[in-house]
Amino acid sequence: MQDPTQQLFSAAGYWLRVSGASLYREDEQAVMILYGYIYNADFNTDPAFWLELLQRTTPTLTHELNRLDGAYNLVLFNKADGRCSVFTDRLGGQRLYYHQNNTELWLSTEFSVIADLLPTKNFDTNGVMETLHFRWLTGTDTAVKNVKKMPHAAVMQLSLSHSPVTIMRFGLLPAKVKQTSKSMAEHVEHVQQLIADNIVASITPGDKIAVLLSGGVDSAVLLAICCYLQLDVVAITPVHEHHDNPELETAKAFAREMGVEHRVIPIQNADITQLFSEVVQQLASAPRSHSALSLQLLVKQLSGEFNKVLYGEGADTLFGSRAVKRFGNRYNKHRAVRKVLNWLPGVNTVIPLLPIGTKVKALVNFDTNTAIAEEIALTLSEDIYSSLANTLTLQPKTLLQQFNTDVALLDGFDANVRMLKQSLFSTDVVNHFYELYTLASAAKIQLVSPFACWPVMSYAAQLPDALYFGEQFVKPVLRALGEKFYTAELMYLPKFGFPVPHKYWLSEPLKPLTQQAAEFFNVPNSWLDNAEMAWTLAGLYLLAKQWHISPLPLMKHVAGAVRN
């Protein structure tokens, strides 16, 4: 029997080269195809429902798309006019790649399907530029020329006459509104219920669930709520050879207090090179998260036994981020300094001449766009920046135009903080979801992040500043929630995130790979002293080997460059 998906889109002038649609629905007006998964039990699978919403692009469409959880691409074909629209998921869990020429528009959730269409493969300068400058990719470019990706949280209109057009974006954190005063206990109860509701909605009877337990607040809260719901859950924590995980003992204590099985899975140095290669192959890019290698081994070990993996990504941005707190403090100091100096005539001309320190001048000239770009920029040394080829530059304003935000410049503390939060969601949260979803789906495991469901996101966005920034500790609401299940001592221990020894990997097991990468791109070995550059070059080198791509000149006057 012929694949109805391919029959449909070849007839419409498109070709959807993807197998394994998880849902196919057709009526007299439209055809709807789902790739990936949506785990909302009340997901409306009627094509006419979505077609009507799309034709009006009402707030109801935004509401319906925001509430969908999962990793998916929803394709809608209008039989009446031949238009094809794509809804991409809110958190970027599943990417949709495309290639367009004069006669065809090819779509696939698999990078290799699109790349195989190209007779020759070359690096895309813009894609490599982002990869070399920023940890979190944001735009539609990939590292391979003529292979593009659709943005997350978007409704796209497809046409052979032009590139896919963004009709609308969604998933934006709501602006703060004035709330009636609630006690900490009331906030805690409400947040617990919202998270529990999302966990229940995401599972089916008989699911065996793994919680990635880092030893931090977020994963501990997820584990506690799973136990409260009496789910079949196991805690999973990686431990890296020759590296002291500062939160391993804390993770063990969390699991012990909950009385759940806790598996500590070793990550051996001998496996690192192979894991790095596997991750690059599956992601079709240099991995942006250093923890991707550990996660790759974890999901391989969980495959066949577990149906769902619960992951605490997004909680920091929503409930209390140190990065956002630093940004807020700098913004407030900036406003205070400007208020004092604004009485000076010609203040912007006078400030560079004043005998004040560079830190004060930085506060005076604080710029939201630049500060946000700095939060996701790689930490490269000045000599690397200055020696990169002129084509490999990117301005902060150019970067911000690619974010899923509704404004570029905002006035006021709440508005600036909201923009930073939304920018972080549009970059690091989305890329974390994409990387872990891709690795987990290859192991036939569904990824669930209960913090990043829309009811939790909307509620967290309205928390008072005191319950976001806290005094000594950020995330006071989640810590208070954790105290319902654990001793207070555990909840207020220093937290270190998900540490991985990537610098050690680069200096030992990955060293031959990084040296080959430096030789391939004809750059100085001194570049490898910078961990961010070494990591990125290794990923781009493996991608080039996989697809037989010629190296892109990375240095100014590369022909005259001498490697040391």
Summary tags:
44% helix, Rossmann fold, 13% strand, single chain, 564 residues, disordered C terminus, globular, 15 strands, Glutamine Phosphoribosylpyrophosphate, subunit 1, domain 1, 6-stranded antiparallel β-sheet, 5-stranded parallel β-sheet, alpha/beta
What radius of gyration results from the CA coordinates? Answer: 24 Å
Helix count, DSSP H or I runs of 4 or more residues: 25
Q: Which superfamily, in CATH terms, is the homologous superfamily of the domain at 4-169?
A: Aminohydrolase, N-terminal nucleophile (Ntn) domain
Strand order of the largest sheet: 2-3-4-5-9-10
Percent range of helical residues: 40-55%
- Which ranges are low-confidence, i.e. pLDDT below 50, for 5 or more consecutive residues? 559-564
CATH class of the domain at 4-169: Alpha Beta
Number of strands: 15
CATH topology of the domain at 4-169: Glutamine Phosphoribosylpyrophosphate, subunit 1, domain 1
CATH architecture annotation of the domain at 4-169: 4-Layer Sandwich
Largest sheet: 6 strands, antiparallel
Which range does the strand content fall in? Answer: 5-15%
Identify the quaternary structure here.
Answer: single chain
User: Distance between termini?
Assistant: 60 Å
Describe this structure in words.
There is one protein chain. Among the domains are: 4-169, Aminohydrolase, N-terminal nucleophile (Ntn) domain (Glutamine Phosphoribosylpyrophosphate, subunit 1, domain 1); 186-299 and 470-501, HUPs (Rossmann fold, 3-Layer(aba) Sandwich), CATH 3.40.50; 510-560, no CATH class. Helix content is 44%, strand content 13%. A six-stranded antiparallel β-sheet has the order 2-3-4-5-9-10. A hairpin with a 3-residue loop joins strand 2 (23-26) and strand 3. The protein has 564 residues and is an alpha/beta fold. Helix 7 (217-228) packs parallel to helix 8, helix 12 (322-341) packs across helix 14 (358-364) and helix 15 (368-376) runs parallel beside helix 18. It has 25 helices and 15 strands.
